[in-house]
Specification:
Radius of gyration: 17 Å
Number of strands: 8
Shape: globular
Largest sheet: 8 strands, parallel, barrel
Oligomer: single chain
CATH class: Alpha Beta
Helix content: 25-40%
Strand content: 15-25%
CATH topology: TIM Barrel
Bound molecules: 2-phosphoglycolic acid
Structural class: alpha/beta
Number of domains: 1
CATH architecture: Alpha-Beta Barrel
Strand order of the largest sheet: 1-2-3-4-5-6-7-8
């Protein structure tokens, strides 16, 4: 396990005003010297972005959005929010390419446009990639990862503001997780693809998919990952804190 670990909380469509109190505990934890090298990023629903930002302002906790529209300019896009608006409330990160959004129409081209507009707005990107169960069974994992990376980053110059989040779709919210050996193998494949494409030696790669307090001790043995993107378990503050504590002990 490396230093400067990321713990990214993806709250999906959960959380209300009351959730704010629990976040205060995580902010307090982040101020402890022991956790100086830990980067916590909260990605709540849009409705809580501003609140979370105000709360975390004087701490090392950063705020991210769960998605953004591809258009950099304001426009007639009912229900959407773009990178510029996200940046304007103080968020620093945005998740792009999450499988739950790929299912509802985000293809590699659209994801590419979203990444470009987020980078132009100086946001850091948590770029999700990963294979479905069917693709895994058909031994398509490596080619899927390759096409997600190569097409998602098309015409984008090498840069350090993209964190790759390897999230096998079959693992998200299911309790199923890859064996450490298989995870190491996939991370090394991802590194090779990025090396080939961008000549970037040490990309930041986090793992996501059913990370919880029970399996974190095992996951932390995978030395090639730089942290975790955590959905369900991050919504329970005690669990989220325990995951962070266990990871760095
Ligand atoms: P999960 O979600 O931790 O609930 O599996 C991860 C994610 O969707 O980012």
């Amino acid at each position: 396990m490396t230093n400067n670990m990321f713990f990214i909380a993806n709250w999906k469509m959960f959380g209300d005003n009351k959730s704010v109190n629990s976040v205060k505990k995580v902010i307090k934890l982040s101020k402890d010297k022991k956790f100086k090298k830990v980067q916590i990023v909260y990605c709540p629903p849009y409705t809580l972005l501003d609140k979370f930002f105000r709360l975390s302002k004087n701490s090392n906790v950063k705020i991210g959005s769960q998605n953004c529209h591809y258009s950099e300019k304001p426009g007639p896009f009912t229900g959407s929010i773009n990178a510029n608006l996200i940046k304007s409330i103080g968020a620093e990160y945005v998740i792009i390419g999450h499988s739950e959004n790929r299912f509802t129409g985000d293809n590699n081209n659209l994801i590419n446009s979203k990444i470009k507009s987020a980078l132009n707005n100086k946001l850091k990107i948590i770029f999700c990639i990963g294979e479905t169960l069917k693709e895994k069974r058909n031994k398509k994992t490596n080619s899927i990862l390759n096409s997600q990376i190569v097409n998602g980053l098309k015409n984008i110059k090498k840069n350090n503001n993209i964190i790759f989040a390897y999230e096998p779709v079959w693992s998200i919210g299911t309790g199923l997780v890859p064996k450490n050996r298989d995870l190491e193998k996939q991370i090394s494949v991802i590194k090779k693809i990025i090396m080939r494409f961008w000549k970037l030696k040490n990309p930041k790669i986090v793992y996501g998919g059913s990370v919880n307090i029970k399996n974190i001790n095992n996951f932390k043995k995978v030395s090639s990952i730089n942290g975790f993107l955590i959905g369900g378990a991050s919504q329970n503050t005690k669990n989220f804190i325990d995951i962070i504590k266990k990871s760095i002990n």
